[in-house]
Fold:
Amino acid sequence: MTCQDPPAAGQTLSITVGGHEGGCRLDALLQKRHPCLSRSRFANLVHEGCVLVDGEVKKAAYTVRRGQIVTVRIPRAEPLSLAPEPIALHVLFEDADLLVISKPAGLVVHPAPGHAHGTLVNAILHHCPRLEGIGGVQRPGIVHRLDRDTSGVMVVAKSERAHTALSEQFKKREVTKTYLALVHGEPGSGSGKVTLPVGRHPLHRKKMLADAPGGRCAETLWKVKERFKGATFLELELKTGRTHQIRVHCAAMGHSVMGDPVYGARRPHRELPLSLQGQVASLARQMLHAWRLAFLHPRSGSTLDFTAPLPADMTALLHELREKAAITPSL
Structure:
């Protein structure tokens, strides 16, 4: 999906409602004329009094009529109330619209209670001090997230245009998202698909649950890359993007992600060779890595495809599994 440059901050637009546009909602008309800004962004501008119809303030749901004049004032972006922090970033790609990074495990994406500082957003504000602003705020556009202890590829929008276009690609499931994981046990087949819906746990509100009442549809494709005694190296492709989806689906398969403190079964490492059980039991995080991300550039429409190298802790564990838990082919 591509689009032209969005209206600049401080610019005032003037739109004459065409004959075929009469009967449209005000916010829908504006988004149709300027698709690089989201409908919710225009609805907010209407609410803030930045949109006038024939000189009068209207609501976002107002039905426009042919020949009416709509003026829109695009305010300048407000500074974000977060401090830039000089946190090192592993940059895979960067241009005026995008920043693609390989996120390390342990880095929280966005400030939240208990993580007010030291996040990816703080790092990006330092790395990109002249962001143009998204949604009226001078901030990076986080269009998807990785759990704190999941490593791998992330794309961040640096412009309103990029944020709108990428959000649409994620919403329409046009983005390729491939993960690598080390899981407990050995699946009976070489590949498969999990389609259990994922929703909030009714008792533990910070935990997700497979096949939860009212859960949202979720689909994960998986295939075996390498088998070991008591463990498997999987490649997984997300068709949806629910919170903790891979971790929840792997646990539902009976093959929880190694090191997962939330969805891992009690003492699943007992299936491993004795020489590896202690090492796996003491893992500092889940062995899950966002390996590949492919999408269309929001300006040019060209395909971008990025991979992030497997982090050191997963590489080391893979080496140990190959040394101590290799499956000897039967004669």
Q: What stands out?
A: The domain at 77-172 is CATH 3.30.2350.10 (Pseudouridine synthase). The longest strand covers residues 176-184. The chain has a mean pLDDT of 88.
